[in-house]
Task: structure prediction
Amino acid sequence: QVQLVESGGGLVQAGGSLRLSCLVSGRTSSFFAMGWFRQAPGKEREFVTAFSWSWSVGTTNYADSVKGRFTISRDNAKNTVYLQMNSLKTEDTAVYYCAARYGNVRSGVSDYDYWGQGTQVTVSS
Result:
């Protein structure tokens, strides 16, 4: 079992930055993938970014809408995955979810077995 707890959401003006955190606990392994998804009001949950827990595998994917603006990273000592969001736009407003799966990096919502509770990000114009 894996437990995920997000934090760091809030209200920010367009053009600003936020860093989300996802505290990971439970059974992780080298064959393990972490991702961030988001869901805006009235829309389906969508992929943002994901990476392999084992850096040696070296796979990191980003949605086209966030490439060059968002960066996923992790702090092993803190068992925490981060999502650094820069140059935020109003269309980035959503609830952001941390997710995990055993296996390769995937971009489908149904591919992930473990989810956090979500954290709200609101970008004002």
About this structure: The radius of gyration is 14 Å.
